[in-house]
Specification:
The chain is mostly helical and 230 residues long. Helix content is 40%, strand content 5%. The chain folds into 2 domains: 111 residues, Arc Repressor Mutant, subunit A, CATH 1.10.10; 74 residues, no CATH class. It contains 7 helices and 4 strands, in the order βααααβαββαα. α2 packs across α4 and α3 packs across α4. The longest helix has 28 residues. The protein is globular.
C-alpha cells in the first residue's frame, strides 16, 4: 500500500504564503539554515546529529538552527522516521523512535516584490539571494564537472539563456505558468516512474540593462534554441 506524504516524511503543500515579515526573512537568510532546509527538502527527515554529520556542522548549533527554522514554520518535528531508518516491513527501527526527527514543511512561499520591501528588508533579501544563488551555481558546476563518463544522467544538466519582450502583467503570467509546470511534475512517490531522480531547478528573469539611447531591444543571437542538455 502506498504510504501517505506524512508517512514519507513530507508535509502536505500549503497555500501560497508571502514572507513579508523581516524577522522571518532574517531567520531564513542564515546560510547554515538554508543548507539545512535544502538537505531536509531533498533527503527527507533527519535528526540534528545526522544533519550535522551530513553538512559538517556542530550538533549543538544545528539543534539551535532547527528550532529557529521551526519557529518560523520552515521545519517541524515528526515522529515518522525516514525510509533509511526503517525495517523491510516498514516499521521504524527501535532506536529511531527515540530520536528527535525534523522534516521540511512544504509550501508555495513567495517573497514580497522589491517595490514593497523596506530598506532593511532589501538588505536581508540581497544577502539571502547572494548565498542561495552562489550555492546553486557552485553545485551545478561541481556536479557537472564530476559527472561520470557513461552515466546517462551526465546529460541531465539542462540550461537555457534567451531574451523575450514582456509587459509586467505578461511576466507575472509567465512566472505563474512556470510554477504550474513544476507542480505538474510534482507527483507522489507512488506515481513516480521507475528511474526518476530529484532535479533542482532555478529560474532567473530580470530586465535587460538599458542602452544609452533607451531600453535595450534584445533578441536571441540567431533565434535558435539555447538549451544545452550537456
Amino acid at each position: 500500500m502506498p504510504r501517505t506524504p506524512q508517512e514519507r516524511g513530507v508535509s502536505e503543500p500549503a497555500a501560497t504564503v508571502e514572507l513579508g515579515d523581516l524577522a522571518t526573512l532574517k531567520a531564513l537568510a542564515q546560510p547554515r539554515r538554508q543548507r539545512m532546509l535544502e538537505h531536509l527538502t531533498l533527503h527527507g527527515p533527519a535528526t540534528s546529529a545526522t544533519l550535522a554529520r551530513a553538512l559538517g556542522l556542530n550538533t549543538g548549533s544545528t539543534s539551535y538552527h532547527l528550532r529557529e527554522l521551526a519557529r518560523y514554520g520552515f521545519v517541524e518535528e515528526t515522529v515518522e522516521a525516514p525510509d533509511s531508518a526503517r525495517r523491510p516491513d516498514g516499521r521504524p527501527e527501535p532506536s529511531a523512535r527515540r530520536r528527535r526527527w525534523w522534516r521540511a514543511v512544504a509550501g508555495d512561499r513567495r517573497f514580497p516584490p522589491r517595490s514593497r520591501q523596506s530598506p532593511a528588508m532589501r538588505q536581508v533579501m540581497d544577502e539571502l539571494n547572494h548565498h542561495a544563488y552562489a550555492a546553486d551555481v557552485e553545485l551545478f558546476e561541481r556536479l557537472q564537472r564530476d559527472a561520470q563518463e557513461g552515466d546517462p544522467w551526465s546529460d541531465a544538466f539542462a540550461h537555457s539563456r534567451s531574451a523575450v519582450r514582456l509587459t509586467l502583467p505578461e511576466l507575472r503570467e509567465f512566472f505563474e505558468e512556470y510554477i504550474a509546470l513544476l507542480n505538474r511534475y510534482k507527483r507522489p512517490e507512488s506515481e513516480t516512474p521507475p528511474g526518476a531522480r530529484t532535479l533542482l531547478t532555478r529560474l532567473f528573469a530580470h530586465p535587460a540593462p538599458e542602452s544609452p539611447g533607451g531600453p535595450a531591444h534584445l533578441t536571441a543571437p540567431d533565434d535558435r534554441r539555447e538549451t544545452d542538455p550537456s
